[in-house]
Amino acid sequence: MPENTFLKIEGLSKYFEGVRAVDGINLSLKKGEVTSLIGPNGAGKTTFFNCITGMVAPSAGDIYFQKKLISGLKPFQITARGVARTFQNIRLFSEMTVLENVLVGRYTKSAFSIKQTFMGALRQGKKFKQGETETRAVAMDLLEFVGLSAQSERPARHLAYGDQRRLEIARAMASDPQLLLLDEPAAGMNPRETHALMDLVGKIQKRGITPFLIEHNMQLVMGVSDQIVVLDHGTKIAQGSPKEIQKDRVVIAAYLGGA
């Protein structure tokens, strides 16, 4: 495995009752590069992400993150290894505040277990109070990073749609990931929000986190990606730079509607 290979996937397949949602995919990602995964609806993109993050078990193949096998691990174990994600459909705790949503993500990195956190809340020990102060400071820093610090005490359900997307990103970042999977982060966004998201992806990259996107918005994809991977019917049909993908005849035929 090359020294700069960050995520390596070998022969990854996932079958659902005979349907090949993902079929024999090989892929390598380099640390620090923005990779976008594109393809028609039903191409297997979200299933591919689900396999990487342990949401579903692969039918075949291996997934290595930083040279360690992660396929077969549970989602919380993969998160602990440094892989986080957002979802195609927003999954916030709508009745909790913006800050509380990020705190939930941060507790995966807390020095306290859930039981210890509960007991600490009852006892209010000095060590627990210090940990809580540090956790809140990290959460507020992340809200500042995504532009939501002024809305930290608002219920998440009161945020504009684009802001809810940004909150999901902040919550995922709260676990201190090294690899951040974003499943259609621009879905439902207006042009202004999409442009702001492009800037945010660049800031995430500069922060030392490697972004890996599923996205249909081609302006966003072409604007932020170092490499693009194209799926069609569960198989990888192309991989390359934005310029290479734009000129690829197979991609044009399968995805962009060319003849």
TrEMBL record:
SUPFAM superfamilies: P-loop containing nucleoside triphosphate hydrolases (SSF52540). Pfam families: ABC_tran (PF00005), BCA_ABC_TP_C (PF12399). GO terms for cellular component: plasma membrane. PROSITE patterns: ABC_TRANSPORTER_1, ABC_TRANSPORTER_2. Residues 7-258 form the ABC transporter domain. GO terms for biological process: D-alanine transmembrane transport; L-alanine transport; L-isoleucine import across plasma membrane; L-valine import across plasma membrane. The keyword Phosphoprotein does not apply. Keywords: ATP-binding, Nucleotide-binding, Transport. GO terms for molecular function: ATP binding; ATP hydrolysis activity; L-isoleucine transmembrane transporter activity; L-phenylalanine transmembrane transporter activity; L-valine transmembrane transporter activity. The keyword Transit peptide does not apply. This is Branched-chain amino acid transport ATP-binding protein LivG (TC 3.A.1.4.1).
